[in-house]
Amino acid sequence: MMNLEKNLMGGLANIGLQSRCCKNRNPMMWIGVFILLCFGLPSFAGGAPGPAESEASPADRLQSEEMIKAGELTFSQNCTYCHGYKGIGGKARKMQCRDSFTPDYLFTTISNGKQRGSLIMPPWKDSFNEETRWQLVSYILSLKTLPSCSE
Amino acid sequence: MNVSRIQRTKKAAKVAVCALSLLGSFSLSAIAADNPNNWPEYYRDSNAWRYSPLDQINKDNVKKLKVAWIHQPGDIQMGLQATPIAIDGILYYVAANNNVYAVDGKSGKTLWHYQPELDPMSATSFWAAQSRGVAVGHGNVYLGSLDGRFIALDQKTGKEKWQTQLTDFHNCRGCNFSFPPQLAGDILYSGHTGGDQPQQGKIFGVNAKTGELVWTFNAIKDDPKSWPGDSGKVGGSGAWMPGVYDAKTDTILIGTSNAAPDFFSEGRKGDNLYSASILAMEGKTGKLKWYHQEVPHDSWDYDSAFEIMTIEHEGKELLVHLNKGGFVSVLDKATGKPYNVWKFTQNANWVDSVDSKTGELIGRKDPVAGVEATFCPSVLGARSWNQAAYNPKTKLWYSNGWDFCNTVVPAAQDPEQLGWAGVFFGISKLELIPPPGQKSGSARLDARDPITGKVKWTIDYPVPGMNSVLTTGGGLVFNGDATGVYKAYDADDGKELWSFNAGSGFRSGPISYGVDGKQYILVPSGLGGLALGFATGAFPNLIGLPGGAALIAFTLED
């Protein structure tokens, strides 16, 4: 639990903005910074961020090739065994071509794991830092843009 | 075997128990196996045949099988993977998360239930929830727990009698027991999972009456030629499946897993003893008598952990053992020397061949770091851990098999950076694929001569069979697939005789037992397990199949 709180508290500052701010020149990100500074920080400073901040902050940079590539390696080494190569589907259904995933849903599920019916997914929050988990989110989201999704 | 014969045999067995119990624990297990109504240990007998001599259910009447009762353990995580034990009409089995049940074999009524207080970390390991059996002896039911303990329960009440923590659970990335420990006289022994984590495989021998640790065998040989530098500290090699015990010679026969990291093997140049080996050990001391390493310096995840079957052939006791790499070793039981090696899989490209007289690997194609390559079989082997069966009447070996491959890029992985539930494969890419030139993987149920491998009959399985095969004195072979369809076949020619749809697939060890003059076929249904997540690249029809957990007893209608 402590780790989760720490992750959520530090999430926007460490992951969403600081680590990428100098490399990513995407104007949309700076708009996001402005919105966050105006509306996000007061509530952020006052406690754990709500879903809105978690969703908004990483959304822009999640599309960076660097993030996706790093996430792919972590996925190949840790997630393939249950979700199949490139999320082709395993015990659970396909992760490819899914429009319903949101960053926050994926981050929370990766962090805390999931149990449903016969399926059990371990929590990864004690194993992977926030950066790594967001990289996984980035990679999984990229699976909806595979060429096979438009076939 | 007709009803009266079953009853006569039961009475005879009781007399035998009374007469021979004076001989001590050695005789007890032998007597239990001699009673055809029982399934007293994991493979039923020390030959690991998975053969029930009961013949009330036979080729003529098997079509009249009906459900007698269903026992539901309530926890379906990872399905129901158990091989139940049946002794004197009472069944002992374990469901997910170490839920142990004693069940009346006639009615399916729960007699007692036990679940240990598991370390919460056990729910987060790679091997979470998976529970595959218990052992019974000395008036106890023995459990290997998901957090690395042996636990002894009173056979009559299910009350805990002793428990011993054996693995350093928190510091070895989830080394635990998913299979049941086995008895070697007064010693209760088992290795732990597994070959795919950065840990040292060990086999523990415990006093079965007190829980006191008697011996520990390190499956990582203390020899820098075998394991250079610190490579042995993370070399895997766990003996994760049940061994068998030969009471005549006080010999435990047990197989070890692959060496780790699985594909990135440059850091462990050497033969990596005793990974991927069959071990013969003295039961009382754990001292090694002989070993036969099937895959020296394994670099493909080709465990030797599967069942070790004993078959008498031309006056000699031989061992029959399938390695995940797709070759069956036939060994002299006394010495471990190869008698024959035959190819089981249809696709093996990691070697050109295996010398049938020496077991030597000829023409190895070792993975190279950073270089993408396709190897067949895959990490899931030519078959999974679900065991074969042998019928002494037909002299045939019945086994599921599957054929597919994996494309891998071997790469260094820092064990310190590995997730708690991570796998130490040593890869940057792993994709399971159909064999070259094929659109999907293939699977089958084979009936073969166990010594030569000659095929008597074979049946294609569009959806793989992932349960252990059962064969009986009634001339039958029972097998199910991952969708939940369970079938009986004529053991002689493979003709399908009966079929039942259980609604969820099989990843367990069905057995047969008798009570009060009736033979039962007991089938744990409920799909689950890790292989389902891997294999979908070759078998898309495995994706999203439903899980479940139901212990189904079949018997002939009145």
Descriptive account of the structure:
The complex is a heterodimer of chains A (151) and B (558). Chain A is mainly alpha-helical. Helix content of chain A is 56%, strand content 4%. Chain A has helices at residues 2-17, 27-45, 51-59, 65-78, 80-83, 103-112, 130-142, and strands at 114-116, 119-121. A two-stranded antiparallel ribbon of chain A has the order 1-2. In chain A, strand 1 and strand 2 form a beta hairpin. In chain A, helix 1 runs parallel beside helix 3 and helix 4 crosses helix 7 (130-142). The longest helix of chain A is centred in the N-terminal third of the chain and has 19 residues, at 27-45. Chain A is globular and about 30 Å long. Chain A starts with a helix and ends in a 9-residue tail after the last helix. Chain B is mainly β and 558 residues long. Chain B is built from three helices and 38 strands. In chain B, the strands form ten sheets. A five-stranded mixed sheet of chain B has the order 1-32-33-34-35, with no helix packed on it. In chain B, strands 2-38-37-36 form a four-stranded antiparallel sheet, with no helix packed on it. In chain B, strand 26 (389-391) and strand 27 form a beta hairpin. In chain B, helix 1 packs antiparallel against helix 2 (25-34). The model of chain B is unreliable at 1-29 (pLDDT under 50). At the A-B interface, helix 4 and helix 5 of A face strand 29 and helix 3 of B.
Identify the notable features of this structure and list them briefly.
heterodimer, A: 151 residues, mainly alpha, two-stranded antiparallel ribbon, 7 helices, disordered N terminus, B: 558 residues, mainly beta, five-stranded mixed sheet, four-stranded antiparallel sheet, 3 helices, 38 strands, 6% helix, globular
